[in-house]
């Protein structure tokens, strides 16, 4: 069933496997939303959700985590990014779970990918891009500073969308939605620690040609914590429904252990299933 509400997906690299599990629960229960807004790993999960490909997001990371064509430090010696995002959208043969762009294009859900402009450190959005523009936008949204190079997009060079807007529920309200569902990849109690002096120095040095981006990256913890406080308030007001891990997520950004990756996905499945009854009531409530 398509609900007139927006879905906002936080990023977090491999923590996104929690989101993958929750979204597969949505697909299993025929829950669709009119708008899907994703950041970084949340955008990758969102693309698979919009194309209704159950198990694809988790399957790629569990089965191919140790494929050197996908994620490998050896890429650095070739002056390439550690993560090869093109791998996810390349046809690898008969057994490969190819991204279904035809289903993605036919979907009734709007899809917004969030990235951060390298030029000014501000949020940029890509509204249901297709073809190579889709891949470029996803690569930009997922490109972690210090690990990945800036990605060329239709809106200029961009990096990780979480730098400027970690949980972009504001975009959902800007789109006119009164109901917003947020899937986080951190437990609700989690808050970021302020950037230390050393990190500030490293950031300013690394992005000396892009001072506004550096400023946004340094201030990200403050922005993030403010967003989480606001999300908690909106949940209390009944205007937002939030699904977040019950316990702290202990998994690396580029986690090597496929056992941990699978475990987090399965946690998302369980906790997503447990949330479905309350979520359905929230989506069907006509008070808002």
Short structural summary:
This protein is α/β, with parallel strands linked by helices. It contains 10 helices and 7 strands.
Describe the structure.
- The chain has 288 residues and is an alpha/beta fold.
- 41% of the residues lie in helices and 14% in strands.
- It has helices spanning 16-28, 41-50, 56-64, 101-106, 131-142, 169-174, 197-206, 211-218, 220-237, 258-284; strands at residues 2-9, 32-39, 110-117, 123-127, 158-160, 180-183, 240-243.
- Strands 1, 2, 3, 4, 5, 6 and 7 form a seven-stranded mixed sheet that branches.
- The protein is globular.
For the terminal residues, how far apart are their CA atoms?
A: 19 Å
Helix content: 40-55%
Beta-strand level of the residues, as a percent range? 5-15%
Q: Report the total helices.
A: 10
Mean pLDDT: 92
Class based on secondary structure composition and strand pairing: alpha/beta
Count every beta strand, where a strand is a DSSP E run of 2 or more residues. 7
Taken in chain order, the helices and strands follow as EHEHHHEEHEHEHHHEH
| Poorly predicted ranges | none
Largest sheet: 7 strands, mixed
C-alpha-based Rg, rounded: 18 Å
Estimate the global geometry from the Cα principal axes.
globular
Write out key terms for the chains shown.
288 residues; alpha/beta; seven-stranded mixed β-sheet; 10 helices; 41% helix
Layout of helices and strands:
Elements: E1 2-9, H1 16-28, E2 32-39, H2 41-50, H3 56-64, H4 101-106, E3 110-117, E4 123-127, H5 131-142, E5 158-160, H6 169-174, E6 180-183, H7 197-206, H8 211-218, H9 220-237, E7 240-243, H10 258-284
Parallel strand pairs: 1-2, 1-6, 2-3, 6-7
Antiparallel strand pairs: 3-4, 3-5
Helix pairs in contact: 1-2, 1-10, 3-10, 7-8
């Amino acid at each position: 069933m398509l609900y007139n509400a927006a879905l906002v997906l936080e990023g977090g690299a491999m923590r996104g496997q929690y989101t993958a599990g929750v979204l597969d629960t949505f697909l299993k229960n025929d829950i669709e939303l009119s708008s899907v807004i994703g950041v970084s790993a949340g955008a990758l999960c969102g693309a698979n959700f919009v194309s209704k490909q159950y198990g694809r997001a988790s399957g790629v990371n569990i089965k191919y985590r140790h494929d050197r064509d996908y994620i490998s430090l050896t890429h650095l010696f070739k002056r390439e990014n550690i993560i090869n995002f093109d791998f996810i959208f390349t046809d690898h043969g008969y057994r490969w779970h190819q991204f279904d762009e035809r289903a993605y294009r036919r979907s009734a859900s709007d899809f917004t990918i969030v990235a951060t402009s390298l030029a000014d450190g501000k949020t940029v959005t890509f509204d249901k891009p297709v073809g190579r523009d889709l891949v470029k936008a996803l690569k930009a949204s997922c490109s972690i500073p210090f690990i990945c190079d800036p990605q060329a997009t239709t809106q200029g060079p961009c990096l990780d969308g979480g730098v400027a807007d970690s949980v972009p529920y504001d975009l959902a309200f800007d789109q006119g939605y009164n109901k917003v569902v947020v899937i986080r990849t951190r437990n609700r109690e989690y808050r970021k620690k302020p950037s230390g002096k050393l990190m500030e120095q490293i950031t300013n040095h690394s992005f000396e040609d892009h001072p506004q981006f550096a400023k946004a990256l340094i201030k990200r913890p403050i922005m993030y914590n403010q967003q989480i406080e606001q999300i908690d308030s909106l949940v209390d007001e009944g205007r937002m429904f939030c699904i977040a891990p019950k316990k702290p997520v202990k998994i690396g950004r580029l986690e090597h252990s496929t056992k941990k990756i699978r475990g987090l996905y399965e946690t998302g499945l369980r906790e997503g299933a447990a949330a479905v009854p309350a979520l359905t009531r929230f989506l069907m409530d006509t008070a808002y």
